[in-house]
Design goal:
The complex is a heterotrimer of chains A (269), B (105) and C (159). With 269 residues, chain A is mainly alpha-helical. In chain A, 44% of the residues lie in helices and 7% in strands. In chain A, α4 crosses α7 and α8 packs across α12. The N terminus of chain A is likely disordered. Chain C is an alpha+beta fold and 159 residues long. Chain C is 25% helix and 35% strand. In chain C, the strands form 2 sheets. In chain C, strands 1, 3, 5, 6, 8 and 9 form a 6-stranded mixed sheet that branches. The chains are: A mainly alpha (269), B mainly beta (105), C alpha+beta (159).
């Protein structure tokens, strides 16, 4: 139960255990069965329930609920909105993803402190993130809805193009880009298959299964967190929450998933 | 106060299927934090499910039950629209009770 | 439920609980004494071998029985969350315990199965490493067990 905190040396030895020596197919089949058994009773539901409360509760200095927040389909509408985000919002004259839009509503409608929200964007144990709970709730309301991220507005086109640039941008001490790991099929890190985000099927499967309850962390993690952690692994400067770069990269990857049914919050290793 | 449980109770042919999720850290007492200090054990020790005043399941748990625990069990003799109640107590004495209405399976 | 409501519920429940139970439930007793009021078998949960755990649960010389089924994956991607279900086909099953041989303390959970409840439970446990998982069943006063091996691909190996 504390194995993932063990020194790398022990882990390296453990990697030579019979498990690793198994025929790859048996391992893959076994892990598929494991995931199947986990699918029912996803603890992500606990985040969804808390998020729904946060959405409906009157909170903040303005004692207002988020039920007048417009996520793209009109004030208070949550059904299906995530399948069409990021998108252009006229009131801010900006392309926004779910997180930046929620931030906009929480500061504007509820009068909450945006910087404080950003500081606790990702929860850990008893330091919980309201943002993650809200994202869990809103995304759960798009389950089964086909992805239809728009690129008709010039600013949406611009965001997509910028996201593509970020995806291929090489930098950092390792001279890495997102594309280094996610630009070719058949790559993996140890046992983990890495999705080729330039392949339609892979891109769809990857994007439509975030947020996910991350078993290894006991936390619900959002797509925003996934990007944030990829940047950390690339040794890039931190991806600023709600920044244009973050929204653009999300727009690029979300649009590449168009046509697939959204299927999250999911559960992952 | 801990978060509410998620309880799903569905009945089919007189048999109730109960699935619940609890929000709890389930600390083993063997994990170290970032500063190298042991995180004290903190876990649910007792779970009791009742229906119409009778206990339909009771359990004692140790810290090796996974974080945000999941539990599934089945019992007979309950009706649609009636309520099942579940209570947990942890080793710090914290306690939580939630109810759910039995729906059609 | 706010503090006051909670207290009212406790007081209501308290009628059949005895004073100590009420005080413990209200958090007015030190943690140790509150715990003693709960049915929690510290000896069994502290056991470091299968035999000791069985003994602490009040059993002796359990026999292996194929009437007990463990539903679990052969391989777990992460040892922190491993689904384990147990079904007993032994008549008059009274309790089901789940034990993990290679955990520091073997016993994960004991479930009492009253009549009217199926002899089945499913939950998720932590496995420190690849190990045998035991299901111990008490039926009609006697103890039976079965076991299943589960391999764990460790967090580090799994990325």
């Amino acid at each position: 139960m504390i194995r993932n905190k063990l020194p790398a040396v022990l882990l390296a030895v453990a990697c030579l255990s019979p498990v690793a020596a198994w025929a790859q197919t048996d391992t893959v089949k076994g892990i598929e069965r494991y995931r199947e058994l986990l699918a029912d009773g996803n603890p992500a539901e606990l985040w969804e329930a808390r998020g729904e409360d946060l959405w409906k509760q009157k909170r903040g200095p303005k004692m207002a609920s988020l039920e007048s927040c417009n996520l793209g389909k009109g004030p208070g509408v949550v059904k299906g909105v995530y399948a069409e985000l990021p998108r252009y919002f006229k009131d801010t004259d900006r392309v926004m993803d779910l997180e930046s839009r929620l931030l906009h509503c929480m500061t504007g409608i509820q009068g909450l402190d945006g910087e404080a929200i950003k500081r606790t964007a990702f929860g850990a144990g008893t330091n919980r993130s309201d943002m993650e709970a809200l994202v869990a709730y809103v995304t759960s309301q798009s389950k089964g809805v086909r992805m239809r991220v728009p690129t008709s507005h010039p600013k949406e086109k611009q965001a997509y193009a910028m996201g593509e640039k970020v995806f291929f941008y090489r930098g950092g001490p390792h001279d890495f880009a997102c594309a280094t790991c996610h630009g070719e099929s058949g790559k993996r890190i140890r046992l983990q298959d890495l999705p080729n985000l330039l392949d339609r099927k892979d891109a769809q499967r990857a994007y439509t299964t975030w947020p996910a309850y991350r078993v290894s962390q006991g936390e619900l993690r959002t797509f925003q967190w996934r990007l944030f952690d990829c940047f950390r692994q690339q040794r890039f400067p931190a991806l600023e929450f709600g920044s244009d770069a973050s929204i653009a990269l999300t727009a690029f990857l979300a649009k590449n998933a168009n046509g697939a049914a959204f299927n999250a919050p999911a559960i992952k290793r | 106060m801990a978060d509410p449980m998620r309880i799903r109770a569905t009945v089919k042919d007189g048999k109730v299927d109960v699935r619940l999720l609890m929000s709890h850290e389930m600390e083993t007492g063997q994990r170290k934090d970032a500063r190298g200090e042991l995180v004290p054990a903190w876990f649910i020790q007792n779970v009791t499910a009742t229906y119409g005043g009778r206990t339909v399941l009771s359990a004692q748990w140790g810290p090796s039950i996974s974080k945000n625990p999941y539990l599934n069990f089945r019992f007979s003799g309950a009706k649609l629209g009636e309520k099942i109640s579940v209570t947990w107590t942890d080793n710090k004495g914290d306690k939580r009770t939630d109810e759910a209405t039995i729906t059609a399976g | 439920m706010n503090r006051q409501q909670q207290r009212r519920t406790v007081l209501k429940a308290g009628s059949g609980m005895g004073l100590l139970g009420v005080l413990a439930a209200m958090g007015l007793l030190p943690a140790g004494e509150a715990m003693a009021q709960q049915q929690w078998n510290a000896g069994a949960f502290g056991a470091r071998s299968f035999a000791d755990a069985v003994k602490a649960l009040g059993g002796a010389a359990p026999t292996e029985n194929k009437g007990i089924l463990i539903t679990a994956p052969d391989i777990a991607e992460n040892g922190l969350v491993v689904p384990v279900g147990v079904t007993s086909n032994i008549p008059k099953t009274e309790s089901i315990a789940i034990m993990v041989e290679k955990n520091p303390n073997l016993l994960s959970a004991v479930f009492n199965i009253p009549s009217g409840t199926d002899p089945f439970v499913s939950t998720r446990v932590k496995l420190a490493e690849s190990t045998d998982v035991y299901a111990l069943v008490k039926a009609d006063g006697r103890y039976y067990f079965t076991k299943k091996e589960i391999k764990v691909t460790l967090g580090g190996c799994g990325g």
